[in-house]
Amino acid sequence: MKAQRATFKERRHFVENVEEDGNIQVIVKAHPLLKIEGYVVREFLLLKSNWTSKGALADQFTEFLNSLDKLYATDMSETEADPHHPLDTDEAVLELLMTTDEDIKYTPQKSKKTLPSTISKIDVKNADLSTKRKEAPRLIVVTTQGKIGSCFVVADGFQLSVSKDIKEAVLSLVMTYYVWDLSYLKHFQLLGLLQCFVLKDSTDFLKSSAYVKFAKKLEQCSA
Fold this sequence. Notes:
The protein is of the alpha+beta class. It has helices at 2-6, 8-16, 24-30, 37-47, 54-76, 90-104, 166-179, 189-197, 209-222, and strands at residues 119-123, 138-144, 147-155, 158-162. It is globular.
């Protein structure tokens, strides 16, 4: 950690001056440790010094998930006898986040192209972790018989192996955008939601109308 801190400013200068947004391979070629989850987390904590530990972020994420669960339970209470589904497994957390991602993502009306989700779940038998050059980071969760087996942040033609704990994996995904100095794609609205409600970062980003409506309701559940 001391060595990483000592070279932090030099590394940030390099990352922030990469000419093309999304050219992550240039960054990890020059600084190979930035494609290892533990170093990405520590780099984020150096960058955002208001967060003192990964544990503090995990606690904030738990509060966020509880608010999400409350929001969906409220919306569904009139149509389901028992709308509450305890978030006591990683699989349950994953389903909640994927549902949220689908509900708030931006989809161009005239586009016939299928856009990737922020978080995707695939069976180990059909696991494809390939990405195109300069493709933005997203999370792929590989399952075996319905259970989470491994998680990867995939981007720009390579993979970053991350924790199979869903909260940690999703936090690592968000952190890569900060560490690699990337902008969100507009259809990855879930990243903006996490930025605002988990990281407490008010930096502006392009918001879909679905996001704006959803965020207002979530704020009420978080109060």
